[in-house]
Amino acid sequence: MNARPSRHANFPVPGGPTLRAKGWRQEALLRLLENVLSVGEDPDNLIVYAALGKAARNWKAHAAIVKTLLEMDEDQTLLIQSGKPVGLVKTHAKAPLVIMANCNMVGQWAKAEVFYELQKKGLICWGGLTAGAWQYIGSQGVIQGTYEIFMRIAEKRFGGSLKGRFILTAGLGGMGGAQPLAGRMAEAAILCVDVDPDRAQKRREIGYLDMIADNLDHALSLIDGAVKEGKALSVGLVGNAAEIYPDIVARRITPDIVTDQTSAHDLVYGYVPKTRTLAEARRMREEAPEQLMAESRASIVDHVKAMLAFQKAGAEVFDNGNLIRTQAREGGVADAFDIPIFTEAYLRPLFCRAIGPYRWMALSGEESDIARIDDLLLEMFPDNRIVTNWVKLARENIPFEGLPARIAWLGHGERTALARRVNALVASRELKGPVAFSRDHLDAGAMAHPNIMTEGMKDGSDAIADWPLIDAMMLSASMADLVVVHSGGGGYSGYMTSCGVTVIADGTPEGDERLDHAMTNDTTLGVIRYADAGYEEALDEVAKKDVPYIRL
Ligand code: NAD
Description:
This protein is of the alpha/beta class. The protein folds into three domains: 45-120, no CATH class; 143-339, Urocanase like domains (Rossmann fold); 346-545, Urocanase superfamily (Urocanase fold), CATH 3.40.1770. Helix content is 42%, strand content 15%. It has helices at 24-38, 59-71, 112-120, 143-157, 178-185, 197-205, 216-229, 241-250, 278-287, 289-312, 324-330, 342-352, 367-380, 385-397, 414-427, 466-477, 509-532, 536-545, and strands spanning 47-49, 53-54, 76-81, 84-90, 98-102, 166-170, 189-194, 211-212, 233-238, 257-258, 316-317, 356-362, 405-410, 435-439, 447-448, 482-487, 497-505. The strands form three sheets. Strands 3, 4, 5, 12, 13, 14, 15, 16 and 17 form a nine-stranded mixed sheet that branches. A six-stranded parallel sheet has the order 8-9-7-6-10-11, with helices on both faces. A two-stranded antiparallel ribbon has the order 1-2. It is globular and about 65 Å long. The relative contact order is 0.12. The model has no long low-confidence stretch (mean pLDDT 96). It binds nicotinamide-adenine-dinucleotide (NAD). Nicotinamide-adenine-dinucleotide binds at residues 41, 49-51, 142, 145, 170-176, 193-196, 199, 240-242, 261-265, 270-272, 299, 320-322, 442.
């Protein structure tokens, strides 16, 4: 294997033609595990993103996973329970190599306090969705989603363009760090507040953030200049959003768009209250978690009140999937849910057609493999405006982190067609190595989350978690290489269940069969989920693409 250095000295990016495991499928999953650490936020503690989202339960579990992936045969399946390997069973060569269940707790017990207790005892870990399932690709993972949201708002409110518009947001972590680049790609002037100078610096270094302002006055003057010139610009500001947002309200400045992507879902390990420095908050995580929780919630109340004030003043305000409204409502902000969730407000029509965050990673480590697949995308889908626009933008703007990867929102049929063509390119050696296909858990049939993905479903089925469970069982039966069922941990405990999947295009006929079954069935279920909830777009997709939905 030819490893490349990453930002973290001890966690190089995998790559090269040499196999260490007994086959490419096993090697691929091992490289994906290595990759999530190479691009993670705090790999020394196995943390990848979303405050506490971990790649494995602990270092002992990590070593055992690596050893098993190196030694296992193709007709075996590794069982992982919340980041810890617990068994290696005999299956068959068409079965998944890895099956995981991460952070699932029984209903009445699925609460943050119980999670923290279980975590302390070493019995569970939060897999942060794509962290524990080794599918995280750095901040690029949500960038197209964020960009599409901005463009939907541009169409709805600003005549199709965000040129000369001001976006205010917070959070420059693993996922939130995509916001400055998405804002700049949408041609806006975007101000991103983060309490941690290191996070701002990291986004600056990897090219996601243009500059870091000295203070709020400086930041606002930079933004004002960019707005007046109609210039795309991203500005970072080190500060606490619970102070900065109210300060901007007090100055009677109203941004055009306001959101937030701090780790508000986790009041202990994520959000930092304005009453504490970062160092104090970190100490309190172990010493006084309950006090920290109370102070975080009080700050979130001020933070969300400012967001509501911006909304009343005419800004387009939305929740970006971090439970900030839920935390504020529990803190007494009765109208917190006047702020809409991004899924329902902007993206649901796409999910109805199972168009969602599909992604692939070049296991060779070669950027040229992604470039070739970019060309293929343009050749295969010349009339798909979302895809053609995105590929051009992504090529120009997105620096690679870790294994070269691409995200592109593709739908039913498109995902399978692309994956199979790529498998053929692997077989003909036009690509330098196999390619892993995966997607975010926030995908059509894959997630039940009544405060994010499934909020306001047409038939009221918001809280029903059968869909991701069916998805996972179906994907296991559809020959996927890795399947995971995942529920919320930390502050997300009791809020969500999701399913993740990875399939390796290894250039073999069996790989082709796996991609065909797994990718087709995954999006089939996505369309069915929305058709069953009564969405016209999904029913139209059923009719147009002959989706096998049984309608009663
Ligand atoms: P992260 O933990 O890597 O980063 C969170 C950032 O918030 C950190 O940089 C932290 O310093 C900053 N922060 C915390 N409190 C702050 C405060 N009061 N003021 C300013 N900055 C503060 O998390 P992440 O991976 O970036 O995810 C952020 C949130 O978005 C999480 O709640 C996550 O679950 C959610 N999320 C949403 C989507 C989506 O599709 N919309 C996808 C992934 C994650």
